[in-house]
Amino acid sequence: MTQAATKIDPVVTEIIRNGFIAATEEMKTNLMRTAYNMIIYEALDFTVGLFDRDGNTVSIGIGLPMFIRGMSETIKAKIRHFGLAGIEPGDVLLTNDAYITGSHLNHMTFSVPIFADGELLGFAGCMAHWQDIGGMLNGMTRDIYAEGLQMPIVKAWRAGMPNDDILQVIRMNVRMPERAMGDLRAQVAAVKTGEKRFLELVHKYGRDGVQGAIEAIFDHAEAVSRASVREIPDGIYEAESFMDDDGVEQGKRIPIRVKITVAADRMEIDLTEVSEQVQGFYNSGETAGRSAAQVAFKCLTSPLDLPINDGSFRNLAIVLPPGRVVSAQRPAPMRWWMTYPMTIVDTIFKALATAIPTRVIAGHHADLVVANINGRRTQNGDFYVYLGGLIGGGWGAKLGEDGMSATIAINDGDTHNGPSEQVEAKYPLLVERYALRTDSGGAGKNRGGLGTEQVVHAREDIMFNAQVERVDCRPWGLFGGLSGLGNEVELRRDGEAIRFPTGKVLAQHLRKGDVYTLRSGGGGGYGNPLDRKLEDVDRDISQGYVSKEAAHSQYGIAFGADGQIDRAETALLRQTMRKQGLPKDRPFATEDFSACGCARCTIWPTPDAEAEALMRDVAAAGLSRWRCC
Amino acid sequence: MNAPARIAPGVRIAADVGGTFTDVAIFEETTGALRLGKTLTTPARLIEGMGQGVEKAGAAFGAANLFLHGTTVAINALLERKGARTALVTTKGFRDIYEIGRVNRPEAYNLFFRKHRPLIERAFRFEVDERLTAEGDVLRPLDEPELERIAQHFIADRIEAVAILFLHSYRNPAHEIAAQDFFTRRLPGVFVTASHELSQEYREFERTSTVAANAFIGPRVQLYLDETNAFLKDAAFAGKFLIVQSTGGLYDSGQASRECVRMLESGPAAGVIGTRALCAAIKLDNAISFDMGGTTAKAGVILSGVELTAGQVMVGGYAEGLPIQIPMIDIQEVGTGGGSIARVVAGHALRVGPDSAGSVPGPVCYGGGGSEPTVTDANLVLGRLQADLFLGGEMPLDTEGARRVLSARIADPLGLTEAEAADGIVRVAVTQMANVVKRVTTERGLDARDFAMVAYGGAGPLHACLVARELQIGRVIIPNAPGHFSAYGMLVSDLRRDFVRTHFARLAEAPFATFERLFAEMRDRGLAEIKAAKPDIGEIVLTYAADMRYVGQEHAVIVPLSAGLFAAHDSAAIKRAFDAVHVQRYGYASPDEPAEIVSLRLSAIGIIGKPALAEIAQADGALPEAALIARRPVHFGVLGGRIDTPLYRRDGLAAGHAITGPALIQEYASTTVLAPGDRLVVDRFGNLDIALGG
After folding, report:
1. What is the pLDDT of residues B296-342, one digit of tens each?
2. What are the residues whose beta carbons fall under 8 Å from the beta carbon of A312, sequence distance 6 or more?
3. What's the CA gap between B495 and B481, in Å, rounded?
4. Which B-chain residues 267-306 have CB contacts (< 8 A) with chain A?
5. For the segment A495-548, what is each residue's pLDDT rounded down to a tens digit?
6. How far apart are CA A107 and CA A129, in angstroms?
7. How deeply is A534 buried, as exposed, middle or buried, from its count of CB atoms within 10 A (0-12, 13-18, 19+)?
8. How large is the ipTM?
9. Are B100 and A434 inside 8 Å of each other by CB?
10. Which residue of A has its CA nearest to B587?
11. Taking CB atoms and an 8 Å limit, are B96 and A406 in contact across chains?
């Protein structure tokens, strides 16, 4: 190749960069508008992308961040499986192997090779959540086989011809084959759109122009990333946190430990000390562990640099031996895969807090906080399933800024909650309250964001399932900031409230008039709350974000007889509290409960007999409108 | 097209008060003459500025029978957050809905992401015990004594505006009406507004945000309208004063002073209405309206002669914006304009926008202190803008300054020639604008290649042929006075009232009697309000539509339907119409899946006679030598490099003149660029009708 041919044109690069971003946006819109599946349509539980010929990410649509590695790793596995020589134009490659995709079996992952003049130039890919993939409906799975159809790496189309054997296998293994086939067509259409737009760029700017632009995009992202890491002081940074339990051994905390090494412009994230794989369905494949590391890295180094591409990660090494909870081995169950990686991301921020205090945030509520509701309508016997919640929670405080309140957890991005007016029109539910939780944000010089509380009244009998984490292990603060309140699930049966020490409240039958409450945690605080400016505390009190009691006990505020802050007394109180090491952090919810001794707080939920019967009913009826994340 | 209603001949005045300029269009009904004026907007004295603009255009309010007005006063109050001290009254348990919003996080990797910021702080959000069910039944009655307690807080807190939202008020507004009556009586002088007046669609957050915005800007808009009315009275204006809504339709100042949020996007909407009228005049069914100014480019769509509409807009952008849930024209926007700044980032990468030099300091070549190269500077360096002819020569441009900065900041760091760098900046801006056009076409299931592009705004004609080329659009039309096109659009608008009523119902079990009642309520109100705005109105057109979806879906599509289908209880035909819209928009339909109706829509349109476009003189031959100003070198970059190019005066062109590019057509506030191979014909109305080459 001549010198002139290798010269990269910055204008063409920028046009192609815009072209890739627009192409992945169009793929995203295409999938949304062609999928007949609310999880894709509403929760945007999918990602689309374009990849180079080795499977590296060139551009992915910004949907759910935690899908950042799924498609690329899957394409690389497909290349290994077939060999480059075994991939032909017109092939549509498919798998949902959770150990490769790094999520659950619902995520069917399609890709097409992009050829121009017989030469492989790249791939277009799409992973999206199918409503049903078979497997057991309710309760805790204990291995992958209980979770449904596993599709190894196959060609769903060979050189443009559909592979009917594969499609028949799928049809026989899912509960809603027609909808599944609709989603399949939508995904194939999305990857074909990506292929078409990629080739349009090749026709317009030439093969070398596009390849050159891809290299330039990678190089630019790498330069931004290296410059960003170079500003982080060299060193080894470690942190530890805990998950509540694995859903099987209730109450036994699961450790999450990360070690990060920064040397010049390179970073290594070592997840060796993250817990081994667990018994319940909270495991995920290695790709999920790598995604967690990359999401944390991207957030800290170049959050707004687009497109999302693998150039950003050339200076990131990830150490993740097999058999960890985020690199689990067959046959570990993976249905609720997304929960643990969220806390890993937070733990990476925690480890780097001393190194880059300006960029990190304190812990967040780190859970989707959802409930699966189902039942039969009394008036016509119709079976329904409703995914309640997605209520958003508190995010950690940061330097110079309070945390965001009521915002969806890091696993998700542009995911919306459901309007209460809609929920009440569709389901036999009445939302009594959807509000911010006063005092849920961790106290700090900068306060954690507030969690939310949704109180829902059953107008008919319903079945209730929640698998909420981080109830016991609260979102932590940084630099003396306190923990926020954790997530919570509460039931009110026959007027009597039951608050559980866990959020894994599965298969509970609620009668007409009973009430369930989902609470999302607040974010952790940042900096010592005794250093919080009085006017900030005053504003928090007047806005009701912080109660006067908490202002007194956590922020050292003294009030005069007129109810206003007494500045002189406050200074004295704060001085005294500092000497006494107050306020004291309370990182674990269960410690609060054992202190209060309330029996109701220590009831471990078990599925009730009526719920079991209802479940059998549901299994018999099949799924019609089921939705989950 | 409907026959124009008879109106007394006189003068119509349209004034579009924008951020930088106030555009005035005057239409003489007796002679059919259209006159235009442009003055700088004077933020401190908007109304006075408008008066001067009208004077400059040689008209007087005293002789006018219609004054049509678009203004940024509402949108600016919202964006600058300079509104009233506002409080919210809402259903018990829901005061935080406004702050919680939809919990989404569009900037997925940004730890410093910020949500929308409510216009009403939490301390001013009050709850009252009351509750309706989704069916509109009263579960708990309105606690009236509680309202009195809240009123006392309002007095103590010196509240100036009150927004009321109760859950399910779209189904039954009784509690909202009762509370509104109470506060209106109890708090004289306070602006009181309730959500059902603006939106009777479900979605409590979006409705809260809408009514809160209306309250927040209400007192300020009222004051502005009062002052304008007083000014008009002083000016001996005896006609009707009508305001442009975001639908492009008009409403009277009484309605406008209660429903202020309906005028947020009046200027951009009027441009699309102008495009619609132009399409009707030249018999064009489908067009993309492309409006490029100093800071943004906007695109809308005319499909089969009708503008595409949307049910909601996010004011302030998708990520942090506040939703306003009212019908409006579907306009997509990108932060690329003449003032967009070009930069080299991280060593070797070129970026254009979204930062803008705005009008202050402005592009480098304006000489107002701008120090970073912009899209306008790039066009000047390429010779596509003429330093001595800008704004009719009133504003000489600094070519040397633009070249210096462009070389130092872009060309040198990237190792490009000056022309390559300038062309590169324009090409990047053009692809960004092409992508925003795709958002209103491709993403709506439409193929941009099936459309002509109507380009306006100061910078539109400069880039239109390039944007069209990028999208493989074959035809571009530059209307007369593209810099004043929104004011023209106001002149050709109609009175309009839009209503939406949510009523969830399975189509198979459709309660047609209820639908008929809801339509009748909307129809009666629409007719009454149109007549109240203009008692001598001639024809009133009613349009019907329903928001529909498949059972189980969340998102609904708007399905235009005839009233007859409802009268005939023809569920099957309604279903077919829905399936067809679904195919068009989403590429597929599920004829066997059950559908449901979410909301009913009715618009009442009071037809106002339109000024007919005047025809211009016919040319003797095809060659416009008389209009030739000069030949100058212009750089067309990748489209042909530096070419000796003819410059024409637009006002020297006559109908039938034909020009083959490369060429520049100069007019007061705009320049049209014809690339090599493009072929322009002047039509009988004076529009530049361009067929793109290659």
Report:
1. 999 999 999 999 999 999 998 888 899 999 999 999 999 999 999 99
2. A221, A222, A224, A225, A297, A298, A301, A302, A305
3. 24
4. none
5. 888 878 899 998 889 999 999 999 999 999 999 999 999 999 999 999 999 999
6. 5
7. middle
8. 0.93
9. yes
10. A34
11. yes
